[in-house]
Write a structure and sequence with these properties.
Elements (H helix, E strand, L loop, with lengths): L1 E9 L3 E8 L7 E8 L6 E6 L4 E6 L2 H4 L2 H15 L4 E9 L10 E2 L2 H8 L9 H14 L5 E5 L9 H4 L5 H6 L8 H14 L7 E7 L3 E7 L2 E5 L20 H10 L4 H10 L2 H6 L5 H6 L3 H25 L4 E5 H6 L1 H10 L9 H6 L12 E4 L4 H22 L1
Parallel strand pairs: 1-6, 6-8, 9-12, 12-13
Antiparallel strand pairs: 1-2, 2-3, 3-4, 4-5, 7-8, 9-10, 10-11
């Protein structure tokens, strides 16, 4: 009997995965792991539900030479590790679903062809997200696969939040503010009624602060604005990505520095952000520990820009009831949370220093007009839930036939 869901989050040289149990409708994690160094020095590491290492070993070139080989190895390992279990389906994180997909979708050849059209919109993510889908379609054509989109949650934005001030036909062609990190925001929205019920139906800014950084404005749990736009370059500064940038800078780089499209893309995606300003690291932990003046400058700039974008999102909603910090930096850096909250104290945030140091979940004082929270995100669980909903929909459809 099919009683497990495999979740895959594929990058350029890595493949993160989790296995969720479907026993009695439960969504408990059974295994979580990573294959990294794909194509160069591949390594397979997996832990069980308790966090104990089950296996950690290098893979041969045949085992880890590409997505297809890695999936074949992972499939063989899963069959041994979960003897008696069978996959009900595989849920994939897909960064871009364009304007068309506002919900998870079962993948077939036609859907895959549609998703390939979005590669130019997310050139550093989409091809790698689609590679394992293509490999599994070839090796296991009857296995149900579901695409879960980082853009889908933001399809509730009003047109004025999506629009660029370009000739309207570009919007009609799909040049608009898509927004990303939607799986993270959808998970946080699902947790607010339980953790922070007083703001769940109100106006909330969620700050997803990790290596990739964005914020989203939620009104009644629905996205009404976000900092990332047409691509994952826009908005807040990130580990290696520039964030908000005057488009004239791109023209200047091309004309005065003779940079071509590929060189500019590499600069903006991989050599900018915290790394570009500091010249030290793209890791916030390194910057906070560094005595280098430019490391301090990078942190100062990061906090300043987050505060500016937060104020902009609050203005778009006409007010603010709560702030939620999530993802690596948001969940783990009390210093960054403190500095951001101090910057936006004018909005009505009264930080509780002790609660902030202990990690919350509530980090604002009881009388704070705008409450502040720390809520860990779980994109993989969101993907598993979405995959389960698609499975349930298929089962209901079959029952009606």
């Amino acid at each position: 009997m099919a009683d497990a869901i495999l979740v895959i989050n594929a990058g350029s040289s890595s493949l993160k995965f989790q296995v969720f149990s479907l026993d009695d409708g439960d969504m408990a994690v059974r295994f979580r792991g990573l294959i990294d160094g794909i194509g160069t020095r591949p390594n397979f590491a997996v832990k069980n539900a308790e966090g104990a290492t089950v296996l950690d070993r290098p893979l041969s070139a045949a085992e880890g030479g590409g997505p297809a080989a890695c999936l074949a190895f992972l499939g063989g390992w899963l069959r041994e590790a979960t003897a008696g279990s069978q996959l009900a389906g595989v849920g994939h994180r897909v960064v871009h679903g364009g304007a068309r997909y506002s919900a998870p979708v079962r993948i077939d050849a036609q859907v895959l062809a549609e998703l390939e059209k979005f590669v130019p919109l997310a050139p550093l993510h989409q091809p790698h997200n689609l590679a394992p889908i293509r490999a599994l379609m070839a090796s296991q054509p009857n296995l149900l696969q579901v695409a879960c989109f980082d853009t889908a949650f933001h399809r509730t934005q009003p047109i004025e939040a999506e629009l660029f001030a370009l000739p309207k036909h570009f919007y009609d062609e799909g040049v608009l503010r898509y927004g990303f990190h939607g799986l993270s925001y959808e998970y946080i929205a699902s947790q607010l009624p339980r953790i922070a019920p007083k703001i769940a139906d109100g106006r909330v800014v969620v700050a997803h602060l990790g290596s990739g950084v964005s914020m989203a404005a939620l009104a009644g749990g629905r996205s009404v604005g976000t900092t990332m736009g047409f691509t994952a370059l826009d908005g807040c500064p990130m580990g290696t990505r520039c964030g908000r940038l005057d488009p004239g800078v791109v023209l200047y780089l091309a004309r005065e520095h003779g940079m071509n499209v590929d060189e500019i893309e590499t600069l903006l995606y991989k050599k900018s952000g915290l790394l570009g300003i500091s010249g030290v690291s793209n890791d916030m932990r390194d910057l906070l520990e560094s005595d280098a003046p430019d490391a301090k400058l990078a942190v100062d700039y990061f906090v300043y820009r987050i505060a500016c974008e937060l104020g902009s999102l609050a203005a778009g909603m006409g007010g603010l009831d709560g702030i939620v910090f999530t993802a690596g930096v948001g969940e783990n850096s009390a210093v960054i949370r403190k500095r951001i909250c101090e910057r936006v104290a004018w909005l009505g945030v009264d930080l509780d220093a002790s609660a902030n140091e202990s990690g919350g979940p509530r980090i604002s004082r009881a009388g704070s007009r705008v409450s502040a929270w720390v809520i860990p995100t779980n994109e993989e669980l969101m993907i598993a839930r979405q995959t389960q909903r698609v499975l349930a929909g298929i089962a209901r459809g079959a029952a009606k036939v």
